[in-house]
Every structure is written in C-alpha cells, then in structure tokens.
Amino acid sequence: MSPSKAVLKERIIKQILTACAFSSLLFLFLIFAFILVEGLPLFYKVGVKNIVFGMKWAPTKGLFGIFPMIVSSFLVTFGALFIGAPLGLGCAIYLAEYAGRQQKLFLKPALELLAGIPSVVYGFLGVIYIVPFIRQFIGGSGFSLLATSIVLGIMILPTIISISYDALTSVPRSYREGALAMGSTQWQSTSRVVIPAAKSGILASCILGMGRAVGETMAVIMVAGNALKIPTDMLDPLRTLTSNIALELSYASGDHRMGLFSTGVVLLSIIMVLNYLANFVIRRTVIK
Amino acid sequence: MMLDCALKTEKLNLYYGAFHGLKDVDFCVYRNAITALIGPSGCGKSTLLRCFNRMNDLIDDVKVTGSIFVNDRPIDSIDIIELRKNIGMVFQRPNPFPFSVQDNLLYGLRVHGIPKRQHAEIVERCLKSVDLWDDLKDKRHTSAMNLSEEMKQRLCIARLLTVEPQIILLDEPCSALDPIATLRIEELMIELKKDYTILIVTHNMQQAARVSDHTGFMLLGDLIEFGDTSKIFTAPSDNRTDGYITGRFG
Q1: A-chain residues within 8 Å CB-CB of B53?
Q2: How much is the pLDDT for B3?
Q3: Assuming Cys at both sites, which of A82, A99, B106, B221 could form a disulfide with A103, CB separation 3.0 to 4.6 Å?
C-alpha cells in the first residue's frame, strides 16, 4: 500500500525543516571557506610570524603586522569586561535574588531593548558624550582605550546579564531555602551559596561577553581613534582587528585586500577559542 | 514533670491569597520530645511547620494572623536570623550545597562568625552525632553531591546542628529515602530527642507512630486532634482521625 497523502505531506515538511536547520551549518561552512581561501595565502607568502607578531601595518609596502591590533582588541575586551562584568553581574543578582515581580516587569524588557539598540547608536553616544567628557576632564583627544572600554562595557551588559541571570535562576530553590533556614541573610545565601553554585554559568557569560566585545566593529571605530600602535595608556587611541577590516576594505586591493582577510582569519580564531571556552565551561557543569 | 511548650500557636490563621491554609490552629510542640504532624497532602502540615522558622515569608501573598510563641516569646519579637539559627530545618529532599562535605559543615559557622579555632571540634562532634564521622572523616574534602541520599540527609542534619539550634523542624525528611535508610534516620531522631526538641511532618503514619511522643492530625487546614501518640493511634476521639489512621481516606 502506498503511503497516504497525510503521511507524504508529513515527510516533505520534515525534509524542509531539516534543510532549514542544516542551512545554518552550510552558511557557517561557507564563511569559513571564504575567509580561509582569501586569507590563508598571505600567511604562506609573508609568514605567520610576520603577520601575527609584526609590529607594522603598511600593506602598500608589503608590511602586514597586526600585532598592535591583536593587543588592542584584547585590551578593549578586558576593559569592557572590567566595566561590564561587575555591573552586569550586579544587575543579574538583583534580578534573580532581590527583585520583586514589579521590578522584573520593567527591568527585563528594558534589558532586551538595550540588547536591541544598534551598535552605531552606542558609537554615536560615545562620540557625542563620552569622548568629549574624557577630553575635557581626563585628558588626551578623548578617542581612547578608555572611551572604547566604556562603550563596549555597556554593550556587553545584555549578554552578561541574561546569561548569568539564567545561571542564577537555575540554582535549585532548595539551596536558597537551606541557606536561609540556617539563619543566613539574603546576601549570605546569595554570595556564599547561590553565586558559587552558578559560577560556571557566570564565567560563561563573561566569556561570551568578551566574544561580543572582540567582534564589535562600528561603535569601536567611532570612539577608538584607530591609530596604528599599541596603546600604552588608557587615554591612547587604538585600532582593533575588526576596525582594521571595516576601515580599509572599501579601497583595498591585491595583497592589501588579502591582508584584511588574514586579519579576519585571526579574528575568527579568537572568537572560536572564546566560544569553545564558554561551551567547555558550561558543559563541565552539566556533567558534574 | 510539667510539660512545657517550646513552640506554641494560638488561633493561628494563614492565608495564601484568598486560600485559607491554616484555620484557628492551637498547637504546641513539647520540649525534648518528638511531635509529629500527620494528615493528607495539602492539609497544611508543612505550612504549619514553616510558620515556626518563618519560611512562609519567602512566599508572596501570605498573610498570618494569631500568635506564635517560641520559648514563650512572641515570634515577632525575635530577630529572624536568631530565630532561624535557633530553629533548624531539614527538608523533604536532602539539600546539601554543591560544595565539599567540610564546606557544607562550615557554612553555618562562617555565616554566624564562629571563631575558626572551634571549627574542627564542632565539625567532628556534629558528624559524630549523625553517625557519619567514621564514614566521612577521611572524605571531608569530597563533594557532598556524591553521597547517598541517606548520607546527604544526615549531612544536612549535621549541618544544622553546627549552629547549635534548640529545636529541629523536619519536613517529611524520609520521603526521598528507601525503607532501611528511613529506619536509620528515625533511630537518629530518637537519639537527638535527648538534646533537641523535634517537630516532624510526615505522610507516613507508621513513622509518626514509631518515633513521636505527641501527634497532631490535620485536615484541610484544621488541627483536628492533638494528643499523645499512643492515644491518637489507638483511641482517637474524632471520627476523621480514626478514618485517616485506619486508611479509609488520605
């Protein structure tokens, strides 16, 4: 007996949905293939060492050193973490442990909105308020590691808050009750039991926040100053890996263009390591 | 010897929103004895137990009227931290923290600022009083999450003993345990009775009959009958108690 019409339809729908699911894998593969094909040849030609540890970026003269940008990317990332992690964690703890229904009702949508604001708007506000503020009250041109860290610190808040909030709320209620029933204060229960129990999720939120900070481009270009050197001071301008690609791609050609793809290869590797770390941290808890 | 009440309620009423959870309950937990609360699910026995360490405060929309006395002091006049330190609680599911055995036992000592030099001695004494010392003395730095359910529950009891409560509330402490482990925890309760006042909520009538000195039977928020365990189980004065203990309902 041949299958009925309903069964056939069911099969087709399943096939279509499977195709949709695997298309994301295909896109990922294409992106990798594309960047590697364009970016790897230069590594052979100039040498990995001269690119990754090269100090000078002058693509028209055959110098493709992106070490200052790698350092800068990490500096702004840690700067962002320094600002975003305590603030985000504090917010997540408030939401998970202290906030009543009322406060959650307006805080959670506000956070979603914060996550949805386009990065150019963050950059814009950075240029209009943060950069002049730094120039006037702290020093330098204002376009600086400090300004970038502040802007990125705010931008990674939603990531840190939502993931550490999930980690905190998945701590069983019985731990809190156990702690409170022994005469702990709310803060003792939170700081000595709930946070330690959620620590890997919190760590993962910070790593994913770092991933977001490393990858951010638009806002960084607008406030970083984009100078090609390793910043030695919080007030020095800097250029990150992402900015380098975005700033020069429109006019680059030949080896210069390939150099930008090589920058992309390095960037992709950093993001992959961060994602792997976050997954590793999360999985380890699940197994435990 | 006059029996005196370590815990007492007078005309205690509790509402969850519109739901009337406890109705005019007059109840007493005698000192250095085991008092059991029995009754079908949802009768309010856990709610009543949780009134004594104010764990119901954690739930929104709870309203309490009437009086509760702890050692003859009104409960509202006692600092909540002191109250909960003095009245320990054991939960239905063993809830050790996801730390080492040692850190579980040190939790209360750290929270209440008990000097470090006393820690070792207290840990040893409390582990001994729940019969875990021989099993765990060399495994104190392993995770408490890897213990058997029974050992976890014993550890939780040891953990609350570290802060030296006078009264212990047990909320169906054996419902996650097998029958052998249940019997051993019951033996432990009888052992602890010498030094502590115990209130146990249980859905297991045999357990109440085996361990308790006094029993209260609750139904739909009412304390139907309260008296000596032997009397409740052999000659209950209320039909409903008789019906419940002989298994006609519940």
Answers
A1: 181
A2: 63
A3: A99
Residue A285 and residue A228 in contact, taking contact as beta carbons nearer than 8 Å:
no
Average pLDDT, chain B: 91
**Among the listed residues B161, B225, B145, B223, the one whose alpha carbon sits nearest the alpha carbon of residue B195:** B161
The CATH number that domain A57-287 falls under is 1.10.3720.10
Confidence of residue B181 (pLDDT cuts 50, 70, 90): confident
Alpha-carbon distance B92 to A73, whole Å? Answer: 51
* Best A97, A101, A174, A182 residue to mutate vs chain B (most B CBs within 10 Å): A182
Q: Does B16 touch chain A (CB under 8 A)?
A: no
Domains for chain B: give ranges and CATH numbers.
5-96+165-245 (3.40.50.300)
- Reply yes or no on whether the pLDDT at A288 is more than 60: no
User: Do A188 and B111 count as a contact with CB atoms less than 8 A apart?
Assistant: yes
Q: With residue B71 as reference, give the H or E element that holds it.
A: none
Say whether A175 and B95 touch across the interface (CB within 8 A). yes
B83 lies within 8 A of chain A by CB: yes
B81/A183 touch (CB, cutoff 8 Å), yes or no: yes
Per-residue pLDDT tens over the stretch A58-111 = 998 989 999 999 999 999 999 999 999 999 999 999 999 999 888 899 998 998
